[in-house]
Each structure stands twice: as structure tokens, then as C-alpha cells.
Amino acid sequence: MKDKMKRRLPLIVSVAVVFALLVSIAASGNSLHAASPLTSVLVRNGLAQPLTLTYNYFAYLPIIGNRMGLRGPVGAEMDGGFTDGNGMQFFEKSHYTITRYAGVQWEQIEATKGTYNWDATTDSSLIRAHNDGADTLLIIRGVPTWARPVTDTTKLCGPIDASHYADFANFVDAVVARYLPYTQFFELGNEPDVDPYYIGLPNGLPNDGTIGCWGNPNDTSWGGAGAYVNMLKVVTPQVKADHPTAKFLNGGLLFGNNPDTCTGDNVAKFAKGLITLGSLDYLDGFSYHGYTYWNYTPNGTFLEKQKPSGCGWNASPTIPKIQTITSWLKATINQYAPAHNGIPLYLTENAMVSYQAYVMPPSDQLRVVQSYYAAISTGFAVYHNLSGIIYWRMEPSQMYHFNTELLDNSGSVLYPNKVYTALLTSNGNMVGYPVIGWDSNQSQAGVSILKFDRGTLGQLWLVWNSNGDNAVPLTYTLSVTPTAMWDVWNNPLPPTKSIYLNDPYRALYIKP
User: Which CATH number fits domain 436-511: 3.40.50.2300, 2.60.40.1180, 3.40.367.20, 3.90.76.10?
Assistant: First the structure.
């Protein structure tokens, strides 16, 4: 298969170069003002250059199952610019075709009403991702001082004062006009279901416009969702009238607590409020986050983050949070907005989060369990037919001490870690193939199996230890002796009918 890909690569490169040249010709002559698209060139080291694809696509790719380089809905977010310094070259070598850019900051670009100061890093990032063939979910967020509610002008995040919804619509219209040639996808905010109280606290979330914060704990009905929906009613119809091909997502929801069972948390009602109050009439896709939490204890067990009774999303640790939330989301849409059944769902932030002290690189133990999680969460993304699943994040950062990077560093040198390889392997093994079964604790307690039909390649099973809360080692006897086995990093293993799942979340690929 590798030889086939090499033979196809010249054709792929030729098509890409011709396409880029046509876009460049079409875009030539446009000045860089609010309503004009950018020139389609690749910007590196401050110089504008025509697109050239010189990357070694096989330098960092594992042999993924029995094929390579599948282009599917799995990707990774990069913050601070799509540059080699942030690891964009590793994104390009991964063949991912979806990413998320955080983002366009309203309070920075239109600090003075009516005057736009565009960001060159955003310009070059969107161009580069487009030239690489990737769809970018572009986040538009932050609120300038003049558009914030008079009750609190200190928070850089939302909500927007209702009298300035039209101003926000004009700004979004200008953003879409500028970047529509390079992406169709625009996400309005990030984690709007966050209570602004937590923004800017000493141990809280940063007051930099990146998160929240439409959540309203005093709204006993829907936790602030009504104001966000009213904003959508003003913004998206206006922009779509000017730019019909633009696609809008809500700001990815944090989904902190379960709104059906967590009493006393009004902000938890935000998600159900969006659906009930008609937000889907103004959206082209629904964006949400699905972090699973890892807590370190001296004996090395891995625990789902503990919450008050009824507030957590996992009734048991046998399935990851992505499965629980996605199932809830589909059921809630079916109940309260059935006309929108089948709306594209985007898991726009996904990772296994660790709150241990930030160390680069972190422990190998953490990266191993995060690798298992990367495989399992990708499997459930395919199971639910998600339109996108984006791992957070690509490049190292001390932000929040989450330790979720796909790239670690040694000094100033970036290198792909085990999670990067596991995510690539999961993309190649499962994405694009139909799920034909999910065996959850039916054959044996603590063992889950997702089964994929890969056509002429035969079935592939993802088998894992789902006793994540107590790390009980398991020996499981398969129904058949496999013809091949791989670990989550695509290393071949001796095929045996009896498999030992010794680590929490330990996952294996089985070819029956």
C-alpha cells in the first residue's frame, strides 16, 4: 500500500498545485481590507510564496493497519498560529483534514467600533491550512469593551449586550467575507455555557476572551441559553444572506454537569436550553466538548473526575464521556428538536485531561493511557458518525496544566509523542468503516468491543479494558483465534485467543 501511495502522490501534488494556482489567480488584485479575501499564497518566514508540497508524508506515519493516510474527520487544534514553530509540519504529515483555530478575537480586531485591525497570524494560518487541504473551524470570540453588558465590563468573554447584537453581526459578516475562501466553518464563541464568575479568578479560567461566558446562574429556566439564541437569531440570518455558503456552529459546549440529574446548577441547563429554544434553526452543526479526566494517585490508578451525586456524565467508567454526552445530545435533539435529527455533530475538543503538575514531557504512564483513550474515543466518533472529532491540542502549552499535547518537546525541539501515533493509528484503522457492533460488558464484565466492517480487509475489533476506575487487570478469551493483533501504536503482537488487558483502558486491535 505504501508503494501505491507513493505512485499516487505525484498526482495528488499536481492537483493540489493546480488548485492553489487557480485560487491564487482568482484572488489576485484584492487588497487586504475587511470585505476582501486574502491572496492564496503560503506565508513562511515573512515571505509570500506559491504553494509547494515538499513534506515527507511517510516520515512520521506508522503503518496504519493495512492502509495508510486515510483522510477522515479526525484532527487536532492548534493555538497561536499554524506555524512550524507550533508543529504545523506534523499536522501536515498526519494527513488530517480538519482542524480548529482559536481564533478571531473581536475585542482585538474591532477595539474601536467600525475600525478593523486584522491579525496577520490568523491570515497566514488560514491560508496554510487551506493549501494543505484541511477544513478549519474558525472560532470567533471575545467582546470589545464597548459591546459588553454595562453590569460587567471587565470580562473579555461574552455575553454581548443585546443592543450590540447587530454590531456583532456586522463583525461576523466582515470575518466571513475575509476568510470564506479558506474555510466555510465559523464557530460563534467557545464554551459559552461557562458562568462568568469563574473567569479571572486566581485559580479559575483566564480572562483573555478564550472561554465563555454566557452562562447565567440566575436564569432558573435555561442558564443563560436564551440570550445566546437571541444573538444567533440576529447574526446568522444576516451573514448567510450575504454569504450563503458559510456554515455556523455554536461555540463548543463544555458540558460540565448533566442537566437532567445535577440539581442546583442552573448553568448546566444551558445545553438543553439551546436545543429547546430553537438554536438549531440558525446553525449548520452542533459543537461540543467531551473531556475525560485522569487523576493521579500514588498507586497509579486512573480515575474519572469525581463530581457531586447526579452531576457526572458517566454512570460507570465502562464507557468514556464522549459516548455518554453524544448519546444524551442525540436523544435531546430527537425529543425537543426532531426536525434537526441528523444535524452534523462536531466534537471540537477531545482529550484525556490530567491535572498533575505541568512537566514537559510528562510521565510515560500518562501518555500510554492517553493513547488508549485516543483509540477508544475515535472508535466512538465513528460509532456515532460524527462529522468531526478534534483532539485538543497539537502543540505544548502550560495552559491550564492539562497535559494533553500530541507533541512534546526536548528543549526547543518538538517531536510526536505516543498519543500522536495512537491517534494516527486509530484514524487509519477505524475512520470511514461502518461499525457493525458494540459489545459493552456483555461477554465479560469490564471488557468492551467495537467491531468494524472493513470490506475486503475483513473485520477489525477494538477491544479494551473498561474498568477505568479501579484498573482491574483482565484476561479475556476471544470467540475466535485472531489472524493478527496490534497495539494502539500499530506494533504487531503475537495473535492469541486469550488476551491480557493489564492496564486501565488498555486497548488492542484484533483482526479475527
Answer: 2.60.40.1180
